[in-house]
Amino acid sequence: MPKKKVLFISDFGIDDAIAVIYGYYHEEIEIVGFVSDYGNVSKENALRNVRYLQQVTGITDIPIIGGATSALTGQKPVYYPEVHGEVGLGPLVPDNSYSNGTISENFYEVNEIINKYEGEISVFSAGRLSSLATAFILYPDTMKKVKEFFVMGGAFNVPGNITPLAEANFYSDPYAVNLLVQLAPKKVHIIPLDVTQSAILTPEMINILDKHFQESNDKIGQIIKPMADYYYKFYKTTYPAISGGPLHDLFALWALADGQKVEYEEVPIKISISPGSTFGQSAGDFRKSPEKADWPIHKVAMRFNYQQFIKEVFATLRSGTD
C-alpha cells in the first residue's frame, strides 16, 4: 500500500512535535512538507522548532513553508508558554542555529507540493486555521486537488479548553475556520476535543516508552518524555483529576493514517464569530430529525477505541528499533 502523502500545517508545540515523531515512524505516512505558523508560540519559534525536528528525525529533504503570523481576525496572537514552554517544546530549547534562514515568505510553495502530489495528498492542520484558510483564498483551484483534509479543532458536545464553549484552534481564528467550512471542496474531517481530550498517555505509559527508547538508544524517541512530562504537569495543575496528557495532534494524525479507526458523523456545522461568550464556538446539528440546519456539512469525529489507539501508538513509536 502506498504511503499517505501529508502536508503538515502546525504551530509546533509539544503535542504537534510528538505527532511529527509518530508520523516519522509510521509505515503508512510520508510527510512531504511542513507549513509553520503562529499559535502555541510565535511563527519564528515554530520555524525553529520544525527545523530542530527535521534535524532530529533526519527528514531534512522536504520543504518548510512559512505560514501565517497572526489571525484573520486582526487580533494580536496570544501564546501559551505555560502549556508548551517558552519556545514550544517544553524544557527543550533548540539552540540559535535552528533560527537561521529566511524561509518565512514562501507560502506559494503550497501550490508546488499539492500539484506534485495531485489527487493523493492529505492536508493535516494541527494548529490555527489561518494558513489553511489563506490557501483557500489564494489558491482555490489548487485546493481542489487535495485528496482529503484533516483538522484538529473544535468542541461540539464537550466544554472548550480556552473558554467554556470554545477550543483553542477555533477560538484563535474563527474567521479562518468559517472560510474553511464554506470553501472546502469536500467534507473536512474535523477532530475535536470530543475525542482528543480522551487520547491520553499516562505518565506510566510515557515511562514505559522512554525505557524502551533508552535501552534501544533511540535518540528520536528520547525527546518525547521531557516534552510529555512538561505537558502533563500543566494539565494536572489545570485539571487535577486528569490521568495524563491528552495528545490532541497525535490522535488526529493517528485518525488520518486509517480512516476506519474513528467514527464520524456527517453533520451541518457552524462556527460563531459573534463577539462575546460564544466567540469561536463550534456547533453541529446532531439532531436525528430529517430537518437539519442549512449549514455546510462536514465529518466530525465522535468515537474511537482507546485501547486500539494506545496499542497502535505504542507499536508505531517502538517500530524504529523493534
TrEMBL record:
Keywords: Glycosidase, Hydrolase. GO terms for molecular function: hydrolase activity, acting on glycosyl bonds. It comes from the Bacteria. It holds the Pfam family IU_nuc_hydro. Residues 10-310 form the Inosine/uridine-preferring nucleoside hydrolase domain. Its EC number is 3.2.2.-. Coiled coil: none annotated. It is an enzyme of class 3 (hydrolase). InterPro entries: Inosine/uridine_hydrolase_dom, IUNH, Ribo_hydro-like. Transmembrane segments: none annotated. This is Nucleoside hydrolase.
